[in-house]
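Cross-check.
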Amino acid sequence: MFQKILGAVVGLFIGLSAGAATAATYNWNATCTLGCTGNASGILMLTDGSPFGFNISQFISWEYTSSSGTFFLDNSSPYLNAQGGVVNPQTGMSLEENGLGPNTLPLFQFAHALPGVVILSPDGQWQLLVGSYGWTCLNPGCTEWTDDVIRNVGNNGVFSEAIPLPAAFPLFATALAGMGLLGWRRKRMATASV
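Predicted model, tokenized:
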């Protein structure tokens, strides 16, 4: 029984360390200027590439958080459009859950321009849209919009690669746990024989 438990723990940690080494994780931080307050943050996961250099097959997930809430997009949508600087380097990164499907589906879209490029006047570098494709601006500057969409706009968006957990660390932790279990078992057996 003890060997089975120890084998399961070792297998779990080795599996986790192997899985962690296959994905690149990027943290994102930015300033909200319209539709949200304070800062916005995100976590982008790719199998390979970088935020401004990936294609749809390399996209795993995107999690966005602001004062408007937390929104999650993964690669499960059959209509997913996800790219980073592949088609037009000026656009930077573009994610859209149903971008290749009919616009009757729910809207989840995130666009981020390259640093120094403004895609939304006066100073919008990035935009999040969640809701309906039928949303419209209510004034020429689009500072107001219909209530069928959550819209966040901002600037100063910066991606930084998350520091990965060294592959040997989970194996080291497993060895320590195994040694602790062996010591505990030896102590238990010693007290049982007395």
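The two ends are 23 Å apart (CA to CA). The CA atoms of residues 64 and 70 lie 6 Å apart. Passed to J.P. for a second look.
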